[in-house]
Structures are given as C-alpha cells and as structure tokens.
C-alpha cells in the first residue's frame, strides 16, 4: 500500500489578488458601511446634495493627505501641515484680501504656495541632511510656524478670502463643484506619479530600504527634500481651499487636519512604515474619515470622542493590514 500523499495545492491567482488588494477593498468597503449606517440614523444624509457636500469636504482632506501620502511612503511623516496650511491661508488673505486686481491676487497666491513649499523644503533638508527624525523635525517646524503666524498677525488675521478662492471651494459648473474637479485632477496626477514615474518608484524604494536604494544609485536626499516640498505645497493648496470655503482665514484652521490626514493615508492601506500603498487608497481613506466625522456628529459624539475613535481606527487598520499587503496603486 502506498503512503504517498498529494502535493499541497499552490495558492491561485485569485487568492494572491485578494492579498495584494485587501487594504483597498477594506477601505472602500468602509465607505459603503458608513453610508448605510449614517443613512439609517438620518435619511437626509443619503440625499444627493448631502453626499456631494461630503465629497467636497473629502476633497479638502484628500488634498492635504496627498502630500502626507508622498512623505509616508518614504517612511516619514509631516506634523507641520497644521500651521503650514494656516500660514499659507493667512498670507493669502492679508496679501490679497478682497482685491480685484489680478496682479495682487497672483502675488498673494504665489506667496502663499511658495511659503508652504519652502517650509516643506526646510523639513526635507532637516530630515535628509541633518538626519533629524521626521517626527521631531516637523513637530518643531510646526511650533515655529505657530509662533511666526502669531507674530505676523499679532494674534488677529485680517482680510477676507479672494473671490477666486471662494469660487474654487464652493463654486460649481453644471452642478459639479470646482473642488471635486480639482481633486479629480490631483488624484490622476498622484496616481500617475506613483505608477508611471521614476520619482514614484524611488519613493517606494526609499520607504522599503533607504540604504539599499542609495547603493542602487537613488539620490535619496534629493528625493526626500522633494517629497517634503510637495507635501508643503499640498498643505498650502489646502489652505487656499479652506480659506475660500470659510471666506476668511483664522488661527487654528489646520489643527483639525493633522490626525485626519494621517488617518486617511493609513486607512487607505499605505504602510505607516513606508514602502507600500498609494493614493488610490488615500482617496477612500479621506472619504471614510469625512463620513466617520459626520456619522459621529449625528450620534452627538464630541471632539474628544472623535479623537479616540480616530486613534482606534488607525490601530485597527494597522492590525488588519499588517506588513503583508505590498500594493502600489
């Protein structure tokens, strides 16, 4: 009698596909769950107008999370987005205000975006050349920006949002908000950046193993500085959008975007340790966070409770994803 046993069955392509795309499926599945849950609590929540408004709010979070995704893919993090965003918004209103002259508005916009990008460059230089841990570097820069903003405004920002920023944030064409159009363009650019460019591949390489990337000829320092500069630019762009949405700038505008932007990236399946993930998941993460915020508002949970839930959600996603899924979307 033969005691030969059948060879183990190899995992098929379907199983591998599930492993590779599990984070994305979970992220987009959360959106469906939250819409159903919120709709059961309030029927008006699932009205077309309200869902469109949720997407507009997600577009603001998705914009700042775009920069955060780039940095986190390298294994870093940017905690300076709060006051970088805020400082850019204040520069826009104080330099541009309600001026009708194209020259002044152009100057104010360029100044706001340039200042935000410059902050990112400084963060990148500190991380890449001085080898300061990203957490320490960006947290310190956030404190510096807070002080500079208070000195610059004397504690009271002046000026209103220019008309173009209001139109960009709340305007529509054929019923479609400009903010969603901008987010669509940004999303296409980000996805192409990660999938189709050498820069994108180098981000993943650095996140996986910076030493191996360096030995392979990747200009690690240049890529890191560029990554933080792009994150700063994204924060500045978000500041312009939020200024238009609220019709003014105010102190503390960006404080509520630090943890949610990180949560959006993590919920979307990007590893907090770097090297895997992408913006396709961050889109789902941003929508999920906004839906979660509004669902918690419906059940009347305060800001403290929301912060606890954000932290629990991030931890849950880390446990759910682990280090197994290596997606590049």
What does this structure look like?
This protein has 329 residues and is an all-alpha fold. The protein is built from 13 helices and 2 strands. It has a two-stranded antiparallel ribbon with strand order 1-2. Strand 1 and strand 2 form a beta hairpin. Helix 2 packs across helix 12. The longest helix has 29 residues, at 13-41. It is globular, with a radius of gyration of 21 Å. The termini are far apart.
**Class by helix and strand content?**
mainly alpha
Question: Percent of residues in helical segments?
Answer: over 70%
- Main sheet characteristics: 2 strands, antiparallel
Rg, alpha carbons = 21 Å
How many strand elements? 2
State the end-to-end CA separation. Answer: 52 Å
* Oligomer description: single chain
Rounded average pLDDT: 88
Unreliable sequence segments:
1-11, 323-328
Q: What portion of residues belong to β-strands?
A: under 5%
Order of helix and strand elements from N to C terminus: HHHHHHEEHHHHHHH
Question: Based on CA inertia axes, which overall geometry fits?
Answer: globular
Tally of alpha and pi helices: 13
Which strands sit side by side, in order, in the main sheet? 1-2
List keywords for this structure.
2 strands; 13 helices; mainly alpha; disordered C terminus; two-stranded antiparallel ribbon; single chain; 329 residues; disordered N terminus
Present the secondary structure layout.
Blueprint: H1 13-41, H2 48-73, H3 81-95, H4 102-128, H5 134-153, H6 163-170, E1 172-173, E2 176-177, H7 178-196, H8 198-208, H9 210-215, H10 220-246, H11 258-267, H12 279-298, H13 303-321
Antiparallel strand pairs: 1-2
